[in-house]
Amino acid sequence: MIGSSARALAFTGETVLPATLDAPAISELADAHPNEIRVEPAHELRSDTVASPSGNQSDPHFLTHHALRIKGFAKVETLAEITALPAESVESHLSDLAGREWAMFREARALWQLTPSGKSAHPERLAADIAAVDLSALAAHYHGFLELNSAFKVLCGDWQLRDGAVNDHSDSAYDRKVIDRLVELDAAAQPIVAAVGGVIGRFAPYAGRLASTCGRVRTGETNLFTGVMCGSYHDVWMELHEDLILTQGIDRSAEGSF
Questions:
Q1: Which domains are assigned to the chain?
Q2: pTM to 2 decimal places
Q3: CB-facing half-sphere around the CA of 37: CA atoms within 13 A
Q4: What is the separation of C-alpha 208 from the centre of its chain, rounded to a whole number of angstroms?
Q5: Distance between CA atoms of 162 and 239, rounded to whole angstroms?
Q6: Bridge-partner residues for 104, per DSSP?
Q7: What confidence tens digit (pLDDT) does each residue in 30-39 have?
Q8: What is the DSSP string of 135-191?
């Protein structure tokens, strides 16, 4: 269980999840909590804007720059997923960033990364992106995220270890209980992430990515629980956390949240 405080966060008010997410977890959550979760019909979305009906909207070129700052190293497909932009647009942005000597391509692993100049240029662009945003509105939801972050760290530990030893995943009943806790945590996270996306539009895709990945874990793709650089739930969660920290100018070491 993730605790009564986190459960209260999960089912206060109504969470709206777009039908375009097409994730098993969404329909399961909607069926289990019909009074708290509503699925909206799909709407046509422009490819050059963040998929959010509200919240501050970001320049697409900045989105690619920002996503690469979050990831450190990433493939085009990963950046397209984070930004909710077509891969072709992301490739164009990356080429431009490379032309400015802000990004470079590592051919051996087909990964992009920012150069020192690209990292140095990011804070000014981030400041411009959030210039019109009241960050106190974001901070109001961040405390709830941190509560769930603590619970998620425990959950990941319980998935990877059992009784102090490496979990060999031979006990399906044990693993199922841990996965059920992940589903519960995701339900608690959805309203928080949706609220953050209502403040800043570029956060909106995280809700669908988390729900979709949670659904895939639940239906057997267990490598997507805590796998590294594979689009796992842990990967997406860490991206969300890093985005929240960067956007709010938080010192992660001082805050002590990892």
A1: 4-45+133-255 (no CATH), 60-129 (1.10.10.10)
A2: 0.79
A3: 25
A4: 8
A5: 26
A6: 113
A7: 444 444 444 3
A8: HHHHHHHHHHHHHHHHHHHHHHHHHHEETTEE--S--HHHHHHHHHHHHHHHHHHHH
